[in-house]
């Protein structure tokens, strides 16, 4: 359920920031149809309460030499707390794993992994992921072409 404390001004500010994280307070105020001082206070409140968790630069993976992406389904050997903690620690340390979700169904996790090329991905899977000794199985789905990528959340649901 959406945070009911977000009003139309907050949503406008957030929508603008999702499209341009470097937008000035003046740009945000214009988009929200308000003056800069109240807009600045709203942005600070959204940062302080965690609605805005951080600001980042989104990079083009191919332009930084990461031309291969894959989604990897992982099933663990067991569901003991030590196994789950070990896997979670591993995931948190590995930069090539850019997204990890615990999922329902026959697998336990879904990983999004980036690599230089398919061989680099294979090496990462074999030498890092499967070498953990706690993975029962993995299924890899290579991304052929990305049709849509967005970090913006829908704010009107």
TrEMBL record:
<keyword id="KW-0238">DNA-binding</keyword>
<dbReference type="GO" id="GO:0043565">
    <property type="term" value="F:sequence-specific DNA binding"/>
</dbReference>
<keyword id="KW-0805">Transcription regulation</keyword>
<dbReference type="InterPro" id="IPR011008">
    <property type="entry name" value="Dimeric_a/b-barrel"/>
</dbReference>
<feature type="domain" description="HTH asnC-type">
    <location>
        <begin position="6"/>
        <end position="67"/>
    </location>
</feature>
<dbReference type="Pfam" id="PF13412">
    <property type="entry name" value="HTH_24"/>
</dbReference>
<dbReference type="InterPro" id="IPR011991">
    <property type="entry name" value="ArsR-like_HTH"/>
</dbReference>
<dbReference type="GO" id="GO:0006355">
    <property type="term" value="P:regulation of DNA-templated transcription"/>
</dbReference>
<dbReference type="InterPro" id="IPR019887">
    <property type="entry name" value="Tscrpt_reg_AsnC/Lrp_C"/>
</dbReference>
<dbReference type="Pfam" id="PF01037">
    <property type="entry name" value="AsnC_trans_reg"/>
</dbReference>
<dbReference type="InterPro" id="IPR036388">
    <property type="entry name" value="WH-like_DNA-bd_sf"/>
</dbReference>
<protein>
    <submittedName>
        <fullName>Lrp/AsnC family transcriptional regulator</fullName>
    </submittedName>
</protein>
<dbReference type="GO" id="GO:0005829">
    <property type="term" value="C:cytosol"/>
</dbReference>
<keyword id="KW-0804">Transcription</keyword>
<dbReference type="InterPro" id="IPR019888">
    <property type="entry name" value="Tscrpt_reg_AsnC-like"/>
</dbReference>
<dbReference type="InterPro" id="IPR036390">
    <property type="entry name" value="WH_DNA-bd_sf"/>
</dbReference>
<dbReference type="GO" id="GO:0043200">
    <property type="term" value="P:response to amino acid"/>
</dbReference>
<dbReference type="InterPro" id="IPR000485">
    <property type="entry name" value="AsnC-type_HTH_dom"/>
</dbReference>
């Amino acid at each position: 359920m959406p945070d009911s404390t977000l009003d139309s001004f907050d949503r406008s500010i957030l929508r603008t920031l999702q499209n341009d994280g470097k937008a000035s307070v003046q740009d945000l105020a214009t988009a929200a149809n308000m003056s800069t001082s109240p807009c600045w206070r709203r942005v600070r409140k959204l940062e302080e309460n965690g609605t805005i968790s951080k600001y980042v630069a989104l990079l083009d993976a191919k332009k930084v030499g990461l031309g291969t992406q894959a989604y990897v389904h992982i099933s663990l050997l067991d569901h003991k707390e030590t196994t789950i903690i070990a896997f979670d620690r591993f995931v948190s340390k590995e930069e090539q794993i850019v997204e990890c979700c615990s999922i329902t169904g026959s697998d336990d996790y879904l990983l999004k992994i980036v690599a230089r090329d398919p061989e680099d991905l294979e090496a990462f899977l074999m030498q890092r992921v499967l070498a953990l000794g706690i993975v029962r199985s993995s299924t890899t789905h290579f991304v052929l072409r990305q049709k849509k990528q967005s970090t913006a959340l829908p704010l009107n649901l």
